[in-house]
Amino acid sequence: MGNMALLLLIVAAFTLSLPPASLAVTSPYVRPPPRETLSLLRDDDADGQTPQQVHISMVGPDKMRVSWITEDDAPATVEYGTTSGQYPFSVTGTTTTYKYVLYRSGNIHDAIIGPLQPDTTYFYRCSSDQSREFSFRTPPATLPFTFVIVGDLGQTGWTESTLQHIAAADYDVLLLPGDLSYADFIQTRWDSYGRLVSPLASARPWMVTQGNHEIEKLPVLEPKSFKAYNARWRMPYDDHHSHSPPSGSNLFYSFDVAGGAVHVVMLGSYTDFAASSAQYNWLRRDLAAVNDRSSTAAAFVVALVHAPLYNTNEAHKGEGDAMRGAMEDVLYEARVDAVFAGHVHAYERFQRVYAGKPDPCGPVYVTIGDGGNREGLAEKFVDPQPAISEFREASFGHGRMEVVNATHALWTWHRNDDDEPVVADQVWITSLAANPACNRNKNKM
After folding, report:
1. Over the Cα atoms of the chain, what is R_g?
2. What pTM was computed for the model?
3. Which residues are designated catalytic?
4. End-to-end alpha-carbon separation of the chain, Å?
5. What is the pLDDT along the chain (445 residues), one digit of tens a residue?
């Protein structure tokens, strides 16, 4: 970390805060048109018991949930170890299916493995299938820690390009603030999406929350929302092994990384968030628990949600206002450092904001709904650019947040520039916990 420490000193010589509003930028970059949806309806090398659509997610500080699908009956067993081809440990989980109109899913298997060592590569196979070995690396238990953040991913040619860029540089956990597959009622698109992301999602934890394209509610025929999403992408909402209270809903939850140095809150835009709701009351308990940890309090607290609470794009304008009215005070009082959203198919970064005005103790709001969806980009921004909006561009891409130490994180947005990743926006974010004027303990909830 010698070079990084030197870099921090150099940056400190100039500024360790976000740029002033006078540097607000609306990028003139012109993005090529959307690309066609990919066709990954079947895995030609798979038989009925071959594990497909494999993905992993964190459960507590030292366990991992492995999820996969087989077309036919197969054991919900994961065998694993730290040497390729050798699997001394084995766990058997559960199997479920779901029906959606005339569609019936494959067998959805789910097993929690561990305890696992941090920053360690594990090799595993699913359903005792000898034809496919997978591997993942557990996240580190200390800082530095790197997140990839990408929203509205879909399954187009731009999605494929974005995934290639993500895979080209190392990271620890991927965060996705909603709109995964763009299945939009066509359930086979969930299967093709699972196949598309599996090479990455089986190798690093993917922690996701839902967007509007996950609702898939049909009057009379399918009255229950999020049926496919909840069946396929189960998150640790009922985890009793973390510092945070279980939420009781797969639509909102939280987790820690780096030994508790970073606390991540995943919120639900499309489930009740009013002051009387289960989500609102859980959020208050969750953030209060973070602030009450004293010496183990998180250095950084970040939140993800689908519909942005701040947005200067004409697309989906005002759709996050109700949630902002309900929850902005809670996020502000808990000194949440950054809030990442999707929904708007463009990139935008705000300065620290509270109640619509610059505030050094407010979160940095970032919209990153530009993973590669099939609907195209949201190219019309409000003109003139409001002072609180610092950088905005209608382009596909992904972001990385490297939490370097307990006081500083480097946020970088990579534009997908004709299949080449280009750094288009970069800024250092200073932890609010390190700012005496914003001390969380002065604002206990």
Report:
1. 21
2. 0.92
3. 316
4. 36
5. 444 443 333 333 333 334 443 468 877 766 666 667 776 556 667 788 999 999 999 999 999 999 999 999 999 999 999 999 999 999 999 999 999 999 999 999 999 999 999 999 999 999 999 999 999 999 999 999 999 999 999 999 999 999 999 999 999 999 999 999 999 999 999 999 999 999 999 999 999 999 999 999 999 999 999 999 999 999 999 987 667 789 999 999 999 999 999 999 999 999 999 999 999 999 999 999 988 765 567 899 999 999 999 999 999 999 999 999 999 999 999 999 999 999 999 999 999 999 999 999 999 999 999 999 999 899 999 999 999 999 999 999 999 999 999 999 999 999 998 778 999 999 999 999 999 999 765 455 5
- Here the tokens at position 281 are 């009351």
